[in-house]
Amino acid sequence: VVTTLASVTESTKLQNLAATEVDALSEAFANWPKPCSLFERYAAMAAAGERDVVVAWSGERSVGYLTIAWTSPYQPFAVAGIPEVVDFNVAARQRNRGMGHALMDEAERRIRIRAEFAGIGVGLTAGYGAAQRMYVKRGYLPDGRGIVVDGEPVAPGSMIVVDDSPELMFTKRLR
Ligand SMILES: CC(C)(COP(=O)(O)OP(=O)(O)OC[C@H]1O[C@@H](n2cnc3c(N)ncnc32)[C@H](O)[C@@H]1OP(=O)(O)O)[C@@H](O)C(=O)NCCC(=O)NCCS
Fold first, then answer.
1. Ligand 1 contact via 122 beta carbon (within 6 Å)
2. What pLDDT shows up at residue 10?
3. What 3-state class would DSSP assign to 158?
């Protein structure tokens, strides 16, 4: 599926990840600890139909991506048949130009065909601040289960390290 985003630039497109593009993607996102092997795994999961991997391209450069896990790794979503948007990134210099919303529009369009709800998790640190604001603005609500680490609920009174792991999980009704 190729969608041209008139709202960004005429040369910006959303496309499904092709295995041949793994190098370009891992180079573009080398600032994060995102090894090539991660994108190879995504390409394999896409080929197996387990995930959709949607990449935003500006000309030859990949500027953002997200994946849709059709069976969420988070048990409550998996049990409820809620697909989850996992690993959503826009390259730092390309932010605040509508790319993130365009990727989320495309993810929700695909999920709506198969499911009533979309799910997403977001970290608690300021590094995830833009995402936290975006999901609330887009109509996502916390799932009410509180903080989870690696998909498991954190018991009240627990000591945890607030790094990239603790998340709140959100859902949005799509139909
Ligand atoms: C979250 C993230 C993906 C958002 O990507 P993005 O491309 O900056 O998102 P957008 O540009 O669509 O939207 C961001 C803001 O820019 C605004 N915007 C959209 N188009 C714009 C334009 N043409 N000009 C100026 N601003 C614009 C949006 O309205 C939005 O502002 P708002 O929050 O006040 O509504 C990005 O910040 C990111 O990669 N963050 C780090 C990783 C992360 O947190 N990922 C999510 C993990 S759960």
1. yes
2. 67
3. coil
E strand segments, the chain: 3-4, 12-16, 51-58, 61-69, 84-90, 117-123, 141-142, 148-149, 152-153, 167-173
Q: Which of 7, 29, 74, 95 to mutate to test the pocket of ligand 1 (most atoms within 8 A of CB)?
A: 95
What is the per-residue pLDDT for 52? 97
- What's the pLDDT tens digit per position in 107-150? 999 999 999 999 999 999 999 999 999 999 999 999 999 999 99
Instruction: Give distance in angstroms: CA of 135 to centre of ligand 1.
Output: 10
Give the largest Cα separation in the chain, rounded.
51
Amino acid, single-letter form, for residue 81: G
Task: Name the packing angle between helices 99-114 and 129-137 (round to 10°).
Answer: 50
Q: Residue with structure tokens 């499911």?
A: 115
Beta carbon of 138 within 6 Å of any ligand 1 atom: no
The type of residue at 9 is T
Pocket flag, ligand 1, residue 88 (CB < 6 Å) = yes
Length of the chain as a residue count: 175
Tell me the CA end-to-end span of the chain in Å, nearest whole number.
22
